[in-house]
Amino acid sequence: MSILELDNVTLKFGGLTAVNKLSFSVEQGEVFAIVGPNGAGKSTVFNLISRFYDPYEGSIRFDGHDLLKQKASGVASFGVARTFQNIELFDHASVLQNLLVGRHRHRQSNFLSELFFTPSVKRQEMQNRQLVEEIIDFLDLQAYRDKMIAGLPYGVRKVVEVGRALATDPKLLLLDEPASGLSVEETSDMRWWIDDIRRQMGITVLMVEHDMGLVSGVSDRVLALADGAKLALGTPSEVQSHPAVIEAYLGK
Ligand code: ADP
Ligand code: MG
């Protein structure tokens, strides 16, 4: 069963067609990777799903909903979370605080109940705290729990960003270049996190990634994009051996 469906989606920036009549669907529970040269439109696809941009044509459905009828905040509340190509965390807050921010959308309270800190708010806060602590354990971040983001190594910040997205309790996790800037060892760790997120948490993962080792290691299916259009779609080995893909990578 597919959880996400893009049908004939086009997005133009002035005269540039960044995404061109693109259709694909992501199955519930799979890891699906989008690959392609720089400028192929990969991040733009994420921005379309997150509703940062309106497509020029086409439809995007998620979990039975027409996403194009939603604002960005609506997409998040349906259970879509993302990380960014350039990490976006609160640098002057701790790991724990950044993850608690991810819980925000689950806060079921109003201004008055927060002011008087009612039992239900207290309960909600405790649940948030517990879930966030579980994510910290899951991602092996205990040693960094109370450390400020600004002082952390880049590789750890990448993992914290995944944690912040997980804290929203998503059905679909969008990872934009999770291995960029990571060492070989950190990339291998990231591969296991992604695998565990899918297997243990049951979350569907859609990622954009350049590292073909990571892509082949963890993805069920791969979509290769060039100039905003689909070049090939299939298993990692099918896509890597596809003549159009080889040409797009070697020909440029
Ligand atoms: P990728 O992530 O595959 O490297 P992007 O999706 O970031 O590529 O960009 C696809 C194309 O759209 C590129 O040519 C890029 O320059 C252009 N582009 C992306 N975002 C914008 C924007 N906000 N305004 C204008 N052009 C953009
Ligand atoms: Mg990009």
TrEMBL record:
Which terms in the Gene Ontology molecular function aspect does this entry carry? Answer: ATP binding; ATP hydrolysis activity
* Stretch forming the signal peptide: none
Domain of life where this protein originates: Bacteria
Tell me which residues make up the ABC transporter domain.
4-252
> Which Gene Ontology CC terms are recorded?
plasma membrane
Tell me the SUPFAM superfamilies matching this sequence: P-loop containing nucleoside triphosphate hydrolases
- This one is known as ABC transporter ATP-binding protein
Please tell me the species this chain comes from: Shimia litoralis
